[in-house]
Amino acid sequence: MEDSTFVQYYEFSITDHGGPGDPDAKSYDSSWNDRGVEPEWLVAADNMLMITSEFDGHRPRIRFEVWPSDPGPRHDAEVITTSFYVSSGSIAIDEMLTDTKNLAVELGPPKSNWNVRGHRTTLVPPDHFPEDADEELEAYLFQFWPGDPQAR
């Protein structure tokens, strides 16, 4: 499935699409502290992926793929692999500063752990893009497959 969002403040997030109030999900702060999250361009917490872009104020290409097992990384992009817990079994891009609703990506059963591999490809060198460019400066591919049920 393909989607997009408007990147503001160099960030966008992908969040659980319908699981607020899940007592099994840790808070963002607790989840990040427990994981020892390092500042990477893709970081995971329960019910959330936070993505840091190379650019501000643009619309990247975003593709989601759900696999039954690890599909293996592509070799033409920056790649980060991590895992996270999803309460509802579905996720969507969270429009942080607008009311736009994005399509949900159905991962699988609720209250499950998922692996995610993020691929980030810069389509225009950061120091050579036109000032008025606001589309397709980057492309992202997020591949999801079932994670270890005991991980967390």
Walk me through the structure.
The chain is mainly beta. The chain has one domain: Competence, DNA-entry nuclease inhibitor, ComJ (Substrate Binding Domain Of DNAk, Chain A, domain 1, Sandwich), CATH 2.60.34. The protein contains one helix and ten strands. The strands form two sheets. It has a five-stranded mixed sheet, with no helix packed on it. Strands 3-4-2-7-8 form a five-stranded antiparallel sheet. Strand 3 and strand 4 (about 50) form a beta hairpin. The longest helix is centred in the first third of the chain and has 8 residues, at about 30-35.
Short description:
The protein has 152 residues and is mainly beta.
CATH class membership: Mainly Beta
Quick check: average pLDDT? 82
Number of domains: 1
How many strands, what sense, and barrel or not for the largest sheet?
A: 5 strands, mixed
The ordered H/E elements are EEHEEEEEEEE
**First-to-last CA distance:** 27 Å
What structural keywords apply?
mainly beta
Summarize the topology.
Elements: E1 2-3, E2 11-16, H1 28-35, E3 42-45, E4 48-52, E5 59-66, E6 78-86, E7 90-94, E8 105-106, E9 112-122, E10 135-146
Parallel strand pairs: 5-10
Antiparallel strand pairs: 1-5, 2-4, 2-7, 3-4, 6-9, 7-8, 9-10
